[in-house]
Design goal:
The chain is of the alpha/beta class. It has helices spanning 4-15, 48-65, 78-90, 131-142, 159-168, 178-187, 193-204; strands at residues 19-21, 27-28, 34-35, 37-39, 71-75, 94-97, 110-111, 119-127, 146-155, 172-177. Helix 1 (4-15) runs antiparallel to helix 2 (48-65) and helix 1 crosses helix 6 (178-187). The longest helix has 18 residues, at 48-65. It is globular.
Length: 214
Protein backbone atom coordinates (compact mmCIF):
# COMPACT_ATOMS: atom_id res chain seq x y z
CA UNK A 1 0.00 0.00 0.00
CA UNK A 2 1.43 3.36 -1.05
CA UNK A 3 1.74 6.15 1.49
CA UNK A 4 0.14 9.58 1.12
CA UNK A 5 3.55 11.07 0.40
CA UNK A 6 4.31 8.53 -2.33
CA UNK A 7 0.96 9.18 -4.00
CA UNK A 8 1.22 12.96 -3.70
CA UNK A 9 4.62 13.07 -5.35
CA UNK A 10 3.53 10.57 -8.01
CA UNK A 11 0.61 12.88 -8.82
CA UNK A 12 2.95 15.87 -9.02
CA UNK A 13 5.42 14.07 -11.30
CA UNK A 14 2.61 13.20 -13.70
CA UNK A 15 1.16 16.72 -13.50
CA UNK A 16 4.37 18.47 -14.53
CA UNK A 17 5.23 15.74 -17.05
CA UNK A 18 8.40 14.74 -15.25
CA UNK A 19 7.20 11.18 -15.86
CA UNK A 20 5.85 9.80 -19.11
CA UNK A 21 4.08 6.45 -19.37
CA UNK A 22 3.97 4.93 -22.86
CA UNK A 23 3.32 1.19 -22.59
CA UNK A 24 2.27 1.05 -26.26
CA UNK A 25 5.18 3.15 -27.54
CA UNK A 26 8.09 2.30 -25.24
CA UNK A 27 11.21 4.36 -24.69
CA UNK A 28 14.67 2.90 -25.26
CA UNK A 29 17.14 3.47 -22.43
CA UNK A 30 20.88 3.91 -23.01
CA UNK A 31 21.29 0.28 -21.92
CA UNK A 32 19.03 -0.82 -24.76
CA UNK A 33 16.19 -1.80 -22.43
CA UNK A 34 12.71 -1.06 -23.75
CA UNK A 35 10.77 0.79 -21.09
CA UNK A 36 7.13 1.91 -20.73
CA UNK A 37 8.26 4.74 -18.44
CA UNK A 38 10.60 7.69 -18.70
CA UNK A 39 11.40 9.81 -15.66
CA UNK A 40 13.07 13.26 -15.68
CA UNK A 41 13.06 14.58 -12.14
CA UNK A 42 15.09 17.62 -13.19
CA UNK A 43 11.76 19.15 -14.16
CA UNK A 44 10.77 19.33 -10.49
CA UNK A 45 13.35 22.10 -10.11
CA UNK A 46 11.39 24.33 -12.50
CA UNK A 47 8.06 24.07 -10.68
CA UNK A 48 8.20 25.96 -7.38
CA UNK A 49 5.30 24.21 -5.65
CA UNK A 50 6.38 20.71 -6.69
CA UNK A 51 9.99 21.49 -5.83
CA UNK A 52 8.99 22.49 -2.31
CA UNK A 53 7.07 19.25 -1.80
CA UNK A 54 9.93 17.12 -3.15
CA UNK A 55 12.69 18.79 -1.15
CA UNK A 56 10.62 18.75 2.02
CA UNK A 57 10.02 15.03 1.51
CA UNK A 58 13.76 14.41 1.12
CA UNK A 59 14.47 16.45 4.26
CA UNK A 60 11.85 14.56 6.25
CA UNK A 61 13.29 11.22 5.18
CA UNK A 62 16.80 12.26 6.20
CA UNK A 63 15.54 13.32 9.63
CA UNK A 64 13.38 10.22 10.06
CA UNK A 65 15.72 7.50 8.82
CA UNK A 66 19.16 9.02 9.34
CA UNK A 67 19.01 11.26 12.44
CA UNK A 68 22.80 10.98 12.88
CA UNK A 69 23.49 12.47 9.42
CA UNK A 70 26.14 15.20 9.37
CA UNK A 71 26.39 15.92 5.65
CA UNK A 72 24.52 15.37 2.39
CA UNK A 73 26.26 14.27 -0.78
CA UNK A 74 24.56 14.63 -4.17
CA UNK A 75 25.14 12.35 -7.12
CA UNK A 76 26.37 13.98 -10.33
CA UNK A 77 24.66 15.55 -11.99
CA UNK A 78 20.97 15.15 -11.19
CA UNK A 79 21.30 14.79 -7.43
CA UNK A 80 23.39 17.91 -6.85
CA UNK A 81 20.61 20.51 -6.84
CA UNK A 82 18.37 18.34 -4.67
CA UNK A 83 21.17 17.77 -2.18
CA UNK A 84 21.78 21.52 -1.99
CA UNK A 85 18.12 22.41 -1.50
CA UNK A 86 17.58 19.67 1.07
CA UNK A 87 20.73 20.66 2.94
CA UNK A 88 19.44 24.23 3.10
CA UNK A 89 16.19 23.04 4.70
CA UNK A 90 18.13 20.98 7.23
CA UNK A 91 20.83 23.58 7.85
CA UNK A 92 23.42 20.99 6.92
CA UNK A 93 26.64 21.00 4.85
CA UNK A 94 26.63 19.33 1.45
CA UNK A 95 28.87 18.36 -1.38
CA UNK A 96 28.71 16.13 -4.41
CA UNK A 97 30.52 13.28 -6.10
CA UNK A 98 31.63 13.57 -9.71
CA UNK A 99 31.16 10.63 -12.06
CA UNK A 100 34.94 10.64 -12.43
CA UNK A 101 37.85 12.61 -11.02
CA UNK A 102 38.70 15.92 -12.69
CA UNK A 103 41.57 15.75 -15.16
CA UNK A 104 42.85 19.16 -14.08
CA UNK A 105 43.43 21.21 -10.95
CA UNK A 106 43.44 19.06 -7.81
CA UNK A 107 41.82 16.13 -9.58
CA UNK A 108 38.90 16.02 -7.17
CA UNK A 109 36.11 13.51 -7.49
CA UNK A 110 34.44 14.59 -4.26
CA UNK A 111 33.56 18.29 -4.16
CA UNK A 112 33.07 19.98 -0.80
CA UNK A 113 35.01 19.58 2.44
CA UNK A 114 34.31 16.16 3.94
CA UNK A 115 36.48 14.92 6.76
CA UNK A 116 37.11 11.16 7.20
CA UNK A 117 34.50 9.67 9.51
CA UNK A 118 31.77 12.11 8.46
CA UNK A 119 28.30 10.54 8.61
CA UNK A 120 26.91 11.04 5.13
CA UNK A 121 23.59 10.47 3.34
CA UNK A 122 23.63 10.30 -0.46
CA UNK A 123 20.91 12.22 -2.32
CA UNK A 124 19.85 10.70 -5.65
CA UNK A 125 17.07 11.70 -8.03
CA UNK A 126 16.24 8.32 -9.58
CA UNK A 127 17.02 4.69 -8.76
CA UNK A 128 16.76 2.09 -11.52
CA UNK A 129 19.42 -0.63 -11.43
CA UNK A 130 21.36 1.33 -8.75
CA UNK A 131 24.74 0.95 -10.46
CA UNK A 132 25.77 4.62 -10.57
CA UNK A 133 24.30 5.27 -7.11
CA UNK A 134 26.44 2.54 -5.57
CA UNK A 135 29.53 3.83 -7.37
CA UNK A 136 28.96 7.14 -5.56
CA UNK A 137 28.65 5.32 -2.25
CA UNK A 138 31.92 3.48 -2.87
CA UNK A 139 33.81 6.68 -3.72
CA UNK A 140 32.64 8.20 -0.44
CA UNK A 141 33.59 5.11 1.55
CA UNK A 142 37.01 5.02 -0.06
CA UNK A 143 37.47 8.62 1.10
CA UNK A 144 36.68 7.62 4.68
CA UNK A 145 33.01 8.63 4.93
CA UNK A 146 30.53 6.66 7.00
CA UNK A 147 27.69 6.33 4.50
CA UNK A 148 24.46 5.90 6.46
CA UNK A 149 22.31 5.33 3.40
CA UNK A 150 20.51 7.08 0.59
CA UNK A 151 17.37 9.12 -0.11
CA UNK A 152 15.93 9.57 -3.58
CA UNK A 153 12.95 11.15 -5.29
CA UNK A 154 11.80 8.09 -7.24
CA UNK A 155 12.61 4.41 -7.61
CA UNK A 156 11.46 1.94 -10.21
CA UNK A 157 11.73 -0.81 -7.61
CA UNK A 158 13.53 -3.14 -10.01
CA UNK A 159 14.69 -6.41 -8.51
CA UNK A 160 18.21 -5.89 -9.87
CA UNK A 161 18.51 -2.55 -8.12
CA UNK A 162 17.06 -3.88 -4.89
CA UNK A 163 19.44 -6.85 -4.89
CA UNK A 164 22.44 -4.66 -5.65
CA UNK A 165 21.56 -2.38 -2.75
CA UNK A 166 21.11 -5.36 -0.46
CA UNK A 167 24.42 -6.91 -1.50
CA UNK A 168 26.21 -3.61 -0.88
CA UNK A 169 24.51 -3.14 2.49
CA UNK A 170 23.01 0.20 1.40
CA UNK A 171 19.49 1.27 2.35
CA UNK A 172 17.54 3.64 0.09
CA UNK A 173 14.35 5.50 0.97
CA UNK A 174 12.43 6.99 -1.96
CA UNK A 175 9.79 9.71 -1.82
CA UNK A 176 7.78 7.85 -4.47
CA UNK A 177 7.94 4.74 -6.64
CA UNK A 178 6.57 2.95 -9.68
CA UNK A 179 3.86 1.16 -7.71
CA UNK A 180 2.40 4.44 -6.46
CA UNK A 181 2.73 6.04 -9.87
CA UNK A 182 0.97 3.18 -11.63
CA UNK A 183 -1.95 3.29 -9.20
CA UNK A 184 -2.34 7.05 -9.50
CA UNK A 185 -2.09 6.85 -13.30
CA UNK A 186 -4.94 4.31 -13.48
CA UNK A 187 -7.15 6.30 -11.12
CA UNK A 188 -6.63 9.49 -13.12
CA UNK A 189 -7.31 7.79 -16.45
CA UNK A 190 -3.75 8.38 -17.68
CA UNK A 191 -3.43 4.65 -18.42
CA UNK A 192 -5.83 1.70 -18.52
CA UNK A 193 -6.08 -0.98 -15.85
CA UNK A 194 -4.39 -3.59 -18.05
CA UNK A 195 -1.46 -1.21 -18.50
CA UNK A 196 -1.01 -1.15 -14.73
CA UNK A 197 -0.16 -4.84 -14.79
CA UNK A 198 2.19 -4.34 -17.70
CA UNK A 199 4.11 -1.67 -15.79
CA UNK A 200 4.55 -3.97 -12.81
CA UNK A 201 5.62 -6.82 -15.08
CA UNK A 202 8.29 -4.54 -16.55
CA UNK A 203 9.42 -3.59 -13.04
CA UNK A 204 9.81 -7.22 -12.03
CA UNK A 205 11.76 -8.26 -15.14
CA UNK A 206 12.72 -5.43 -17.53
CA UNK A 207 14.75 -7.84 -19.69
CA UNK A 208 11.60 -9.81 -20.52
CA UNK A 209 9.84 -7.82 -23.20
CA UNK A 210 6.65 -9.85 -22.94
CA UNK A 211 5.16 -6.93 -20.99
CA UNK A 212 4.84 -5.15 -24.34
CA UNK A 213 2.15 -7.60 -25.47
CA UNK A 214 -1.40 -6.60 -24.70
Amino acid sequence: MSTDRERRIAEDLLKIKAVFLRPNDPFTWASGIKSPIYCDNRLTLSDVSVRRVVEQALAEMVKEYYPECEMLMGTAMAGIAHAALTAEILGMPMGYVRSSAKDHGRGNQIEGRMEPGTKVVVVEDLISTAGSSLETVQVLKDAGAEVLGMVSIFTYGMSKGIQRMKDAGVINHSASNLDALASVAVESGYIEEEDHERLLKFRDNPQDESWMKR
